[in-house]
Amino acid sequence: MQVNLPSQGQRGHLMSDVTGQFGGRTALVTGAAGDIGAATAAAFAEAGAAVVITDRREDALDVVAEGLRAKGAQVLAHACDQTDPEAVAGLFAAIRAGAGRLDATFINAGYGRYGPLIDLPFDQWRKHVDVNLNGGFLMAQGAARLMLEGGRGGAIAMNASTAATHICDLLGAYAASKAGVRMLAKSLASELGVWRIRVNLIMPGVIETAMTKSLIDDPAVRADALANTPVGRLGEPEDIARLAVFLCSEAAGYVTGAEVMIDGGQTLHGYPRWFSADYSREGADWLPHSQP
């Protein structure tokens, strides 16, 4: 059997940039006032999309919107608390009235706090579930319904974490809620395929953001994290942004139900232990793993 391999030029075309692929299309980014969300909104705009950005922090959202408009992007900014079903309904009503269509969505807004589960107040547990899982569901459902109305299909990328599949000590509430997001994304991918709506999951490792700053600003913790990252650096928001845009583009048109680990190889040998305790001592304190 003869196999005709693509030429070098054809290979380049197969892996071509997504620039321009989103012309005439609309992309929604949640949690857009955060580092990853803002970077992804900018990446969608650079790829030609009209961008809808949302976050519960209206002032910070306005700053992101102004920055995008200064670069010539078409932007609709709409503040929304994704744990509130009425607020989410208002967001999609605004998209329907303003943009008139929705083609891509990056569900990114999230919440996470460190602490042992035994000491975790229930309101903190509930906030993790409300923001990450319930909010993710409301946003995904609203996006899918609007895509269905348009009759053109679409793509949704959901931001989870490597903690969705690995034990992450002292981040148990976050990990549990993100594990729920993981199964939500897979279930949506299966059910929405009949409407030609693709759903994929992004699973970042340690990314340099305001959320991780309190941990990785510790020189010893940073050194430990780098020592456990085969690519030799920590992730940047733009790393996630490029992946989200790709997964929502036509270049990934045959990809759905996938979960993409983007962690610089941190999980190749299991999950790095950012915190640890001496199990031989009952009641031992949990400390950053880099400390003796």
TrEMBL record:
<dbReference type="InterPro" id="IPR002347">
    <property type="entry name" value="SDR_fam"/>
</dbReference>
<dbReference type="GO" id="GO:0047838">
    <property type="term" value="F:D-xylose 1-dehydrogenase (NAD+) activity"/>
</dbReference>
<comment type="similarity">
    <text>Belongs to the short-chain dehydrogenases/reductases (SDR) family.</text>
</comment>
<dbReference type="InterPro" id="IPR036291">
    <property type="entry name" value="NAD(P)-bd_dom_sf"/>
</dbReference>
<dbReference type="Pfam" id="PF13561">
    <property type="entry name" value="adh_short_C2"/>
</dbReference>
<dbReference type="InterPro" id="IPR020904">
    <property type="entry name" value="Sc_DH/Rdtase_CS"/>
</dbReference>
<protein>
    <recommendedName>
        <fullName>D-xylose 1-dehydrogenase</fullName>
        <ecNumber>1.1.1.175</ecNumber>
    </recommendedName>
</protein>
<keyword id="KW-0560">Oxidoreductase</keyword>
